[in-house]
Design a protein that fits this description.
Layout lengths: L4 E5 L28 E4 L5 E4 L7 E3 L12 E8 L2 E7 L2 E5 L7 E2 L10 E8 L2 E6 L4 E4 L7 E2 L5 H8 L14 E6 L5 E5 L4 E5 L7 E4 L6 E6 L5 E5 L3 E5 L8 E4 L8 E6 L5 E5 L4 E4 L7 E2 L10 E6 L5 E5 L3 E5 L2
Antiparallel strand pairs: 1-27, 2-3, 3-4, 5-6, 6-7, 7-8, 9-10, 10-11, 11-12, 13-14, 14-15, 15-16, 17-18, 18-19, 19-20, 21-22, 22-23, 23-24, 25-26, 26-27
Length: about 325
């Protein structure tokens, strides 16, 4: 089997531990420019940048995030053209209009419910932001004003609908474990305990809770390239939803996970996707997820792989713990 990945190991100082990547993004200064620029986020204000397709990475500093006695964990980054956004914990919002050369800190309300876990650049001076309590906000003026897209947090929704038959809702702690956005703006989120999941579509006033369709608790969920859902359960199970819309019907797909949990799935194209997990597990499908084979190129990597991101059909990354990053070679 030809080698499809390249292993990159970062040698960080002790005080620069790298956390999970929420998003790896590409920016282009013009349509004709071939420069590939990408950012990698982590804890302790860690931000790494590459301008050569991921061959080499250099640490970047953001002075506006280093002027206080806080260690920020950057959770999410998103670009639209030269405009970019970063959100993190404790609450911090950063904005750039020059492809990340400089960053401006945008003030946030102290009443913001929950921690910011995701942001999506949606247009000129516009973005969509999500907190781990289910609040969704949109801005169209560079982050100076935000408008709520949902009427209440998920906790409030579940307190009203606890008698609706959602298993585990009464034990809900009020935060998401994971949240993923589809290209058309739909969201799927997993409850903190993995008891159930929630969905939201633009225009809906509230999040919609759903019972999990499997016995084991949910690890992660996301969107397939065809608009359907994938679902991972604790212990290594992989399920695909029936059809391409929102549904509570899922079918299990047999995978060779060797007993290790699968933590994330990323689609390279309509038919090809990669799944990553504990102890260097790396799986590949070429038929839309109907069957998966293990890619042995990652077998000797002593790391848990927990984030898969394809920027397009030629550029992809898998992030692991201890500073391990895999780069897709094709």
């Amino acid at each position: 089997m030809s080698r499809r990945i390249d292993v990159i190991e970062f040698k960080f100082e002790v005080d620069a531990e790298v956390g999970p990547v929420s998003e790896l993004v590409e920016t282009k200064e013009s349509e004709s420019e071939l420069r590939f620029q990408c950012f990698l986020l982590g804890t302790r204000q860690t931000i790494m940048e590459t301008k050569d397709g991921g061959n080499t990475w250099a640490p970047r500093s953001i002075p506006s995030a280093e002027d206080e006695d806080f260690n920020y964990r950057f959770n999410s980054i998103s670009f639209k053209g030269k405009e970019g956004w970063i959100v993190g914990k404790p609450a911090i919002l950063l904005y750039t209009s020059d492809a990340g050369e400089s960053w401006e800190r945008i003030p946030l309300s102290a009443q913001l419910p929950g921690d910011m876990v995701y942001i999506k650049a949606t247009g000129e001076k516009s973005a969509e932001m999500v907190t781990d309590e289910g609040a969704i906000y949109v801005t169209s003026n560079r982050g100076y004003n935000w408008k709520a897209a949902v009427q209440e947090t998920v906790s409030a929704t579940l307190n009203r609908t606890v008698s609706s038959g959602i298993s585990g809702a009464s034990y809900y702690t009020g935060t998401f474990n994971t949240v993923n956005r589809s290209p058309d703006g739909r969201y799927v989120a997993v409850s903190s305990r993995g008891n159930f999941y929630l969905t939201w579509e633009p225009g809906q006033p509230f999040w919609q809770p759903h019972n999990r369709a499997v016995a084991r608790r949910i690890q992660n969920m996301g969107w397939r390239a065809d608009g359907g859902l994938w679902l991972l359960v604790r212990g290594g199970g992989l399920y695909l939803s029936k059809g391409t819309g929102l549904t509570e019907e899922f079918e299990e797909v047999q995978v060779q996970s060797r007993g290790f949990g699968i933590l994330d799935v990323g689609y390279r194209s309509q038919e090809e996707a990669w799944a990553a997990g504990g102890s260097g597990i790396l799986l590949r499908t070429t038929n839309g997820g109907k069957s998966w084979i293990r890619d042995k190129a990652a077998d000797n990597i002593a790391a848990n792989l927990y984030s898969v991101k394809f920027l397009d059909d030629k550029k992809g990354f898998v992030l692991g713990n201890d500073g391990v990053l895999l780069r897709y070679l094709g």
